[in-house]
Batch of 4 targets.
Target 1
Amino acid sequence: MRGSVEQPTVKEISNKKQNNTSFYQTLWRWHLYAGLFFAPFIFILAITGSMYLFKPQIEQWMYRDLYVVNDEGSKLPPSLLMEKVSSTYPDSTVVKYRPGEAATRSAEVKINQNNEVYTVFVDPYSADIIGKINDKNRLMDRIEEFHGELMLGTTGDRIVELAACWALILVFTGLYLWFPRDKNKWRGIIIPRFKTNRKTLLRDLHAVPAFWISAVMVFLIITGLLWSGFWGTRIQTLATNTGVGYPPSIWVGSAPSSGLKTKDIADVPWAAENLEVPSSTVKEVQLSIDKVVSIASNLEIYPTYEVIFPKTPEGVFTLSVFPPKARDEATVHIDQYSGAVLANYRYENYEPIGKLMAWGITLHKGLEFGLMNQIIGFVVCIGIAGIVFTGFVMWWKRKPNGKMGAPRSVSPGKIKGLLVVLAVFGILFPLVGVSLIVVGVIDFFIIKRVPALKKFFNA
């Protein structure tokens, strides 16, 4: 019959509903287990991140006596300040110098003494030593270390990276579970239902805020992963090798190059970490710090820069700056004998992707747009902590005694599409891929073969 449409059979409709149910239950199961396992790490990232956003204000308050000096006109040459530090701490080696960026800001000389790194604060007008801090005791540095690697070194870095990757999975699975099935229903979708029972309210306080901040969460996760030791390092290397992030280097003259990477000798902006470091021509007399600072002034480097001293006779002076705004980033290499500027690497030299990444990182740190950036970041971090808390409470109140409370697992054949998505995600984020294999092995060879565990996990 012309114009007729073949109608689905009752069996086809039933199978479709069953597949949809299996897909939904599987996502819910993954969301629950990923949330329970990684919730502590995500909570730590949220709390430490909310604190680190206000590093400038906190350190200004904590170290005011070390930071602030009286403006007395002309500052002394940096060499005199370093001579005072060297004479005061004769058994130390100077590794970095940071000139005060304002007339009322002290200068900083970083020294290595007995295998400990200290920051010595010096009055730039009188060369008086104001004080000294062991860098391992600087509160915000420890918070940053806890935020980035749980103070566990490489192991902690991998755990944080894995938690961040799984947080992405939590966001996407959560959005699917949140997505309204009834298009006419908006309460409990975009605003919580406060006039309802506690169970429903708790669900809304978990799902609704998560929806509103989900885009920012994804942004923070991706920009945070750029600093990770595994995925981030490989993305940096890929950007360098393909030239999509920034040019390999900018040379003045025919300076030779070394095999070192900038990140091996200094903390520099992300886009410059894998830049080849040019080497100095070995001569007898090293350039004075006064000359290095003068070169930095002539190059108009953002005033919060650090001078990193060469570690070898072939090394270079490196000027590195982490400014509030990405456009002011700079990494400069100077021949330690001649003073020649071997490389002058600026934000405008980045390719579009490199610029986007640099901008994203300063935004992640709460610097790009000042106080408003910090406030928005703080609200999102507290929101993430709240989502983790409400999710845990909701699970604890709902779970039956002696069980995890997750939906029953389904056969892989019913979720082929989801398995493909997970496989792709595992390839993009290798640590996730490894964790998926580990979970699969544990599930197949242990959980499903031990009756008590099979019952507990509803496998």
Target 2
Amino acid sequence: MKNPSSYRIAAIVGRPNVGKSAIFNRLAGRRISIVHDEPGVTRDRITATCKITPSPFTIIDTGGIGSNPDGSFSNIIKQEADIAIESAELILFVVDGIEGLTPVDQELSAYLRKADKPVFLLVNKIDEKQNIGLTDDFTSLGFDQTFSLSAAHNSGIAELADSINISLPIDTTTPTLNSQNIKIALVGRPNVGKSSLINALLNNDRTIVSDIAGTTRDAVDVPLTHGGIDYTLIDTAGLRSRNKQKTSIEVFSAMRSKSSIRRSDICALVVDATQGATAQDRKIANIIRDSRKPCLVIANKFDLYHPDAPKPDRLASLQDDIAEQLFFIPYAPVVAASAKTGESIKRFYFAIEQIRKASCEGINTGTLNRLMQDSLLAHPPPAGKGGKRFKLLYATMARERDREKSINGANFILFCNKRSLLPASYERYLENKIRENYHYTGIPISFTFRQRETRKRTRKK
């Protein structure tokens, strides 16, 4: 099912550093695009839904076009902006009111007229009332709809949103919540092929791909439907180690990637099959594990992994390598694929479906208690100070599910005498016993402990 806002689209375009991303964030109602004074920070198309009007609509943020902030990407950025313009019903042309009209603005205005679509001219950075006259500088561009606003101070944004809502096609659909929409964050080191994998899954050049590390800076949400299920693929910036984050933009990108992990339903850790899971890959896997997120591992560039060996042997060897290197997330299924050749790319969906089904698997209370008691008898917990041991009184599986999530972890509630008597190693032992009987593919298992309340003794008078 399509989102009601999927055909009500406004694309934000303009030269670099005029405030496109700041306007995008204001319309989206949250910080999505990275805002920075350095030109060319936004490179990919980034989409979001504006919900501050009676009918929602989609907004697209684009990289700066019309100048050359980075020679390696300028042509690709222009191509991305062209795609956004082509798919939009309305174009929001942003200019800098303080800097005034520039030759690049004039060139862009002529370029946008060729699109033969309605254009709103947004004169940004009009922070004071006495500066409203600065918009007169842009009348020569000849656009009928001109808006003076300040994204930094949230001035004029509500009026702009109302005008966009009125100008876009009327929404005649009845919005319904698709409970099957699964948000998947692709995370990993720079240049392991996250954007290439998304393009391969979409079968088009949706995100900017380059051999230069750091191409993706923002977290880019990419909608996709496969097999009747709606997905949102979140393409994130490559996570470098802290001591290699040289600029504030890289720091912001890392923060955005970690935020994407938190808001995702499933994390797909992308590693380079030819290099195996590196120390940085293990750090990212730890972030995923600590966030209690369902996950899988995608070993990209599998076409280059011992290419002359038989495929079954290559698969078995790769599985063993990943299992050894990422031993602390043994529940994560491994997909060996190649974004370049398309080899086994559809196995991604098979792994996601495995995780989705596992998240729905429950264990009835009677079966769980028998399993726990048998495990305790086979290997009793170690004695603590004073010879006291951890005692399990009762176990049950948490039935409360997070309604905002399509995929949930497996949480078990253990009623016990004292939580502190249970070592972390024994907690892992109980988790492994559960997994021996219920695989919970890709699903993290967690325990919530509820201690027995100690009754205070009352003295007899």
Target 3
Amino acid sequence: MKTNEIITVLNENGEKVDLEMIDAIRVDGTDYVIVGPKDSDEAYAYKSVLVNGQMEYTSVGQGAEFKKVLQKYSEQQ
């Protein structure tokens, strides 16, 4: 996946949102993407899941899973 690519994700409210790809990361066998609004310093983690042959991205929120992904991402920078 290319950085700066725009992907559509489901936010915490189940709404579709277009966000810019920052990076893709694998944590404990699960794929995640780090994304954020275009021209913003904000970033979010979404779980990548293949559903019926289509990649879907669902929010991991701000809990323990998010912190684990953020820690792994920080270690790679």
Target 4
Amino acid sequence: MRTLHELPPFRDRWSYLYLEHGELDQQAAGLVFHNATSLTPLPINQMSLLMLGPGTSVTHAAVKALAGNNCLLAWVGEQGVRLYAHSTGGTFSARRLLAQARLVSDPDQRLAVAKRMYSKRFPGENLDSKTMEQIRGMEGARVRTVYAQLAAKHGATWAGRNYDQDHWTAADPVNRALSCANACLYGVCHAGIVSAGYSAGLGFIHTGKLLSFVYDIADLYKTEVTVPIAFRIAAATAEGIERKVRLECRQAFHDTRLVERILPDIAEVLGHAGDDLGEGVGELEGRAVSMADPADAGGVLREPEPTGPGSAVDEGVPEDQDWERDSDLDEPQ
């Protein structure tokens, strides 16, 4: 029976792919993306995040395959800058979620985690006596300084962070580049967070959003990775900014080994640096049951489907068969 131990670790995966105007389907042992001009095979077990943009459709078989291979599927807006929906994570364990909830629910522990996040981003600062509000003020000043320095370095016009998702093209090139770069970063961090069983919504610095913890973790890398890319590209060109930013981000994520860093960094800032990021023996059951392959031995027993009005569509299962190996058993989410 298949378990998560047979899947490639998150740290070994590619960062993301963005698709638009085509159909994603399963073919043979992998996925393929069809559009008007080409058919592109995708390595299903190597991706951490698949972003589906406008004009895309996806088959049930493709979604099932992505879930079975611990790849986050996100439905996004044009150029990947707005998240509409996403799939579930790659673990059924609640161990890290419970630990995260305990930390965020204790004011002292929450402040300690926030200080570790800021110390990781801005080493050398003494935060021992600082409140959350003071730390946020310091962080805002540091980020504004970084923006100003990069604008001067690349000769980009910069009047501050200001854009409207509903009027995307009205934003200046730097703001559009920043939004696009950060959207890519958010997606990869989100994939890492849910792959290990953390909650995307339980943030320590950011609060009140379903992706608060995603924003917390993404902030660890912005000034290092995405912000410099955005200013450099926006200063160099005004055409095709979004696509160029996505390509540059994917290369930068590879060069900085971002996917390898996310989960250890989360464990570090939460104070769980010794966490092996694996599942215990008793935690594998939910995943193994939900992903059981009909071709494998050791299928799980279940009650037969009801018959008569309101029953499921008959798929040709013999009436005297009282069990089957099923890959889609309902499990608590």
